[in-house]
Amino acid sequence: MIEKLLLKLQARDAITDAEAAALAGLVDEIRLFPARKTVIRKGEDLDQSLLLLDGVMCRYKDLRNGRRQISALHIAGDFLDLHSFTLKRLDHDVMSLSPTRVAIVPHVRLMRVTEALPHLTRLLWFSTNLDAAMHREWELSLGQRTALSRSAHLICELQARLQLVGLATEAGFDLTLNQTELAECLGITSVHMNRVLRELREADLVTVRSRQVVIHDLSRLQRLAEFDPTYLYLDRRPR
Amino acid sequence: MIEKLLLKLQARDAITDAEAAALAGLVDEIRLFPARKTVIRKGEDLDQSLLLLDGVMCRYKDLRNGRRQISALHIAGDFLDLHSFTLKRLDHDVMSLSPTRVAIVPHVRLMRVTEALPHLTRLLWFSTNLDAAMHREWELSLGQRTALSRSAHLICELQARLQLVGLATEAGFDLTLNQTELAECLGITSVHMNRVLRELREADLVTVRSRQVVIHDLSRLQRLAEFDPTYLYLDRRPR
DNA sequence: CGAGTACTTGACTGTGGTCAAAGCCAGTGG
DNA sequence: CCACTGGCTTTGACCACAGTCAAGTACTCG
Predict the structure, then answer these.
(1) What residue ranges of chain A have pLDDT lower than 50?
(2) Does B112 contact A at CB distance below 8 Å?
(3) Nearest Cβ partner of B128 from A68, A121, A129?
(4) CA–CA separation, B204 vs B52, rounded Å?
């Protein structure tokens, strides 16, 4: 059930059997959500975290004028609000973008990990730091990349992250975001998103369709995006 | 020496004397840096973290075309690359923006904290999660706020953070960023930064001068910025 | 007092936003 | 089988916020 989480962690450090068992033991119950359901609201008191088993979720913030910024996308295997363990409430909403399957992890169980399993604690800490690294890369995109390069970058990031858990190849992956949601990740309007996707398609780089991303030339796409996966910390080092 | 760090942490949770002593014992040596010196480079192997005692530092990423995005600002009391403890190298550069005084914290000492002091570990974990929360708010700014509101927001954030460690009042604070550096935080050019600062001054909201920020009307400034300090987690809760 | 850095302004340009309408497609019900 | 619906995508015309380029001014500090 937590294989995808294990895949992600094992890509970064060795996990003992005891640690894998402890991770499996974190899970209390499994819950299903339909697409486009807000599952956590900003400011709620939280005593559990969510581990995403299947589907896509996002975190977002809204402005009064109705504009929305998605600050992170989460895929299968992501501990999507592990940070609520230390924060106790969130500064943003969390929403499903596709039908999802989620494991509930009570904070008391995470507390026990921090009391007894320091190495596993550091690994979990690492994964929240990894989220922060992705935030920083998105800040760079939002602040300095053009809409075209920014869009290419998001596709490269998703390709790399999905490939790690076996959900993408160099030729593409399934996607459940519509153009409005992509635009909300990238800080542009859905109208402009549409124009940019046409440009990427006409340049024979990538075709983003309803439910599928077909990559025609990954290395050219990565060059356009100045995609450097350093920030995903894909190498294996003891934490 | 670590009073400002303690101020920050105590604003969020109770610290025992033993924990305060452990924090003080983290520090190995003190180092001074001049303004505008890059002190950590992307990708370097790291076995220590830096605790900022005085001055202002930033983390930034560059694009090939020379454009730079500052992804975070750090002030006195900030553990500015605590995340390198689990990441082991950084995805960005770290630079001083003013003359700074920094405490060096070897990772082996942090390791000992994680082995023996779970509550303090959670507090340190919290502070990296707080950095991530600020990243998310900056993503919202960069993606959705106008240059004017974004600029106002940065000033509100700095005011709140500096006030917490006794370095700002509601009337303003000292600043050591020039307009180019402010622009690099905000994803705009220095020319446009200048025009925006004029607009803020002419609207009698805030005057940003060489080394000083004078706030004329904090609550109007906060309204313009849609500043909601939730994301700074300023309330006191057990972690 | 001179040099260098930082700030300021103007004229022009361009990326991306806005508004509006039309097309497309899958699913639903008659 | 077809009409209808609603969500999503596509396109066009026009606009505005912010970028670019260039020149000039004002500080600061040695």
Answers:
(1) none
(2) no
(3) A129
(4) 33
